[in-house]
Amino acid sequence: MTAGDAHARARWARRGDIALRVVASVPLAYATASLWAMALARLLPGDRAEATVTAALIALALCALAAMWAFAARSGWRAIWTLGLAAAVAAAITWISIDATGRV
Amino acid sequence: MSKGFRQSQAFLHTWSGLLLGWILFLVFVAGTIAFWREGLNRWMRPEIARVEQPMRVLAGSQAFLARKAPDAKSWIIPVATERSPGAQVFWVPQPKPGEERGRRGRRGRGDTQALIGADGQVAQARETRGGDFFYRFHFDLHYMPVIWARWLVGFATMMMLVAIVSGIVTHKKIFKDFFALRRAKGQRSWLDGHNATAVLALPFHLMITYTGLVTLMALLMPWAVVANYNDQNTLFAALFPAANVVERTGRPTPLIDLRRIATDAERRLGAPASFIEVSDPGDAAARVTISQSANSMLSSRTPRLTYDGVTGRLVWRSPPPGAAAETAGAMIGLHAGRFADDGGRWLYFLCGIAGTLMVASGLVLWTVKRRERLLDPTRPHLGFRLVERLNVAVIGGFPLGITCFFWANRLLPVALRGRADWEMHMLFIAWAAAALTAFVVRPARVWPSLFAVTGVLLVALPMYDVVATDRGLFASLAIGDLMIAGIDAAISVFGIGFLLLARRVAHHRPAAKRVRRAEAATASRVPEPAE
Questions:
Q1: For A13-24, what is the mean pLDDT?
Q2: How many domains, in total, are found in chain A?
Q3: Is B322 close to A57, i.e. CB distance below 8 A?
Q4: How many CB pairs under 8 A join A and B?
Q5: DSSP of B10-70, one letter per residue?
Q6: Count of domains forming chain B
Q7: Contacts of A75 in chain B (CB under 8 A)
Q8: ipTM of this model?
């Protein structure tokens, strides 16, 4: 393997890494924030309308933080699986909660 | 903060800022101008007299609607103020049998609205969207379905929030650097300018971006609603309660004088009223709902009162909203700035200008930074040329388009069919011409030309007003109409600003070359070799 090949491979690896981070920062960050909006809307105490509005307000900020995390994580793959895990936790909370008490 | 974290955020800041920067520039420009929406609504109808007796306009509105749409489903009458050109009233006709009930579109209904002027008669004014154009364009853009536009603007706003927060992380010495504005130092000056406009109004930028997302929250983040409600209308009924709907009786009964209800409502609310909605006017079941003016309080969720439209008895009063709803309402109010008096509006306006300059300088900085690293500066790669020319097309072209919009408002014949639409078409035609030039001619020549044309046209506009309208700068000052005078004066100032900018850009040489020339001059004073 020549130095040129190694250089080219490093460039492609970097491009792949950035592509993963873009996926993590746009669709995945939005999906994660949306699922946490649902989970928080279920979890927050008090009046349903109030909990719903509060959850949506928080989720907007979460979306921005998730997009930043996608680029701060050590690697693109790590960004994907950490956000995916956070999304899965929120999905599970939402699912169990709706299954238990239903919607208004 | 680790070095790696800061680097990753610098990368994110650069690219999120670049890719959405052009849309953000448009949104910032339109939003900044929209803080003077009411003033522009008057300025763009120079033939209209100033409202001095709002109640006279209200009486005229009621008389007009009773004549024009006696058995409408509802009337909507804004209460005129000294800031407004009058009352832009509109009515919703009774739904035809089989037609969907409850639909209420405000756009494209030119035949169901009218402007009632200061004397209570239908105002004879040129057809224009006025300052409302900027308000709408700010989130609906133009020539595209509004839902797409709002998603696009919402996405750009989210990226803006990301760019701001990652920008704060990137510039660790941000507050220290703020006091260092190094002029005429090439890239360093652009960076300083970008930092200065960003940090100067940083709380504003953060506030306006996040609250902007909140205004679009129902569209962008409906998932919290989905989690709790089978039918989202249940939530809306809880958030925006209204008096019980009364069935139309079919017994014609005269409507009470709306001035009496408005006076009573203002006394009860302890604040000015803004909107009056009359359902089933002329029927025994008529109801009048009146809401408090958003100019009088921070939250956009203003209290409402509903009266019996025949007897004038108060039948319903909106309950105070919950803490979360009140928070969201306050954020929307903070974004729109309707609560702000003229001084407050100036602050909003200046912060908006800082934001516009921040976006523009950030976009230019991207090219300035990369120009020095180009392998062959005479033949930059495609991406560089694209960004460079899009910058000219958007930053140089859009202000020219707006200037032409204002000129179209003055020059298009009053009898022209679809006149208001043509004013807007002129904006986009001029902008398209500027953009085309930007892609054909070298940027170094287009930048100063666009700025110069914009500057000349802006400076000439108040002069034209003095000569050709009754509402020139001096006439407005003479009658103490500071809003209209202020708009003319501000347009002159912007015109001079664009001319100075044009001169400066025309004399600008990229930093690297200038250094070389200076060295050559001090060393030998021989003619420069041809490059």
A1: 94
A2: 1
A3: no
A4: 113
A5: HHHHHHHHHHHHHHHHHHHHHHHHHTTHHHHHHHT-TTSPPPS-HHHHHHHHHHHHHHH-T
A6: 3
A7: none
A8: 0.94
